[in-house]
Each structure stands twice: as structure tokens, then as C-alpha cells.
Amino acid sequence: MLPLKKEQDGVISKTKKRGVDVELQDLVTAMRERDRIDSTRSIAPLKPAEDALIIDTTHKTVEEVVEEILGKIKLSGLERNSTYIHP
């Protein structure tokens, strides 16, 4: 869920700055429970759109994720229909 030590430390640090003393495992457990509740509720469950492209960001850097997204855009042909110009 939070694969990188830097990200883990950042989440814990932000939480502690808010005055909440939390352990990483407790935070991960709470997030998983939140996700389970959100994805199984009867009204408007949280789930990907039928045509969504799922990108597994586990163990990837931000740069790797961006490159994968841009590659998928190029393969799909969406870049021709976009008004956004990538630098």
C-alpha cells in the first residue's frame, strides 16, 4: 500500500503533526478497512470505471508512473485529441 519508506515516514509525520500518535501498521489497517467499506457499500460503491486502465504503482517512482501513463496515452491515440501539450 505504501511501499516506499520515504512515503511511509511522510504519512506518519503528517499524522503526528496533527497531534495523532499512530503506528504505520495501524494506519495501513485503517486505510484498508476504509477501502473495503467504500468498495462494498450498496449505494455508489467505489470501483474503477468499466473502461478504466489500471496502473499498479507499487514499487514505482513517480517518474515511472508518469512514463507508463504517457505510454498508454500514446498507444490509445488520445494524445491526438488533447489540447494539453506535454513539455
Radius of gyration: 17 Å
Q: Please give the count of helices.
A: 3
Number of strands: 0
Distance between the termini: 31 Å
Number of domains: 2
Describe the secondary-structure layout.
Elements: H1 5-17, H2 24-40, H3 62-76
Pick out its properties.
flat, 87 residues, mainly alpha, 3 helices, 0% strand, 2 domains
How would you portray this structure in words?
- The structure is a single chain.
- The protein has 87 residues and is an all-alpha fold.
- It folds into two domains: 1-47, no CATH class; 49-87, no CATH class.
- The chain is 52% helix and 0% strand.
- The protein has three helices and no strands.
- It has helices at residues 5-17, 24-40, 62-76.
- The longest helix is centred in the middle third of the chain and has 17 residues, at 24-40.
- The chain is flat, with a radius of gyration of 17 Å.
- The model has no long low-confidence stretch (mean pLDDT 81).
